[in-house]
Design a protein that fits this description.
Oligomer: single chain
Strand content: 25-35%
Helix content: 25-40%
Shape: globular
Distance between the termini: 11 Å
Structural class: alpha+beta
Order of helices and strands: EEHHHEEEHEHEEH
Largest sheet: 8 strands, mixed
Number of helices: 6
């Protein structure tokens, strides 16, 4: 376990997560604003899980936290972090299985990861980007303290169309001043 909250364990991916990853990434509503296509084949999930498990949250590059629901002991989502080469900035993203959406679990997971990035790793800034039509992701970013910093018009060609992207940013000083985490498990 890398991080824990009252309801979640955030950990490295393991081979047994491939089936759950394929299932929630195959949902058209989950995939709608993401770069992958639904259905997300099991073979692709197996490759993704191997790649996720091989990366490090402390080195520059990509790391994917597996989000496990404590009560159900199942993979319910993931939180993506791309740590910049300077080790002082990162980008964050998140995905949650439909059955676990709307319960504050993604917010809880993102807050836990932000706590590690700012408190343990000493980052200066974390950014988030989402399709401008993805109101729920934009709301989550704002709920955890991100500020909207911009709109990139027709920035991304995704699934056959040009989409606008919203850009959000959160500074360490803002996060540390405005968020008091629950005691870690």
């Amino acid at each position: 376990m890398l991080l824990g909250t009252e309801r979640l364990v955030l950990r490295r991916f393991r081979a047994s997560d491939a089936t759950a990853l394929a299932a929630y990434r195959s949902d058209p509503d989950v995939a709608r604003y993401q770069t992958w296509e639904a259905p997300f084949p099991p073979s692709k999930a197996e490759t993704a899980v191997r790649n996720f498990a091989a990366s490090s949250p402390d080195r520059a590059g990509y790391f994917q936290y597996a989000v496990e629901h404590v009560a159900d002991e199942v993979l319910i989502g993931d939180v993506y972090v791309r740590l910049h080469d300077n080790l002082k900035q990162a980008e964050i993203g998140f995905t949650m299985a439909p059955a676990y959406q709307g319960k504050g679990l993604a917010t809880e997971a993102v807050r836990a990861v932000l706590g590690r990035l700012f408190r343990v790793q000493g980052l200066h800034k974390v950014t988030g980007e989402c399709d401008a039509r993805n109101e729920r992701s934009a709301a989550l970013l704002q709920r955890v303290g991100f500020r909207r910093e911009g709109l990139l018009r027709q920035q991304t060609f995704l699934k056959g169309e040009w989409t606008d992207d919203l850009i959000f940013g959160l500074l360490a000083e803002e996060f540390l001043a405005g968020y008091a985490p629950k005691r870690p498990r």
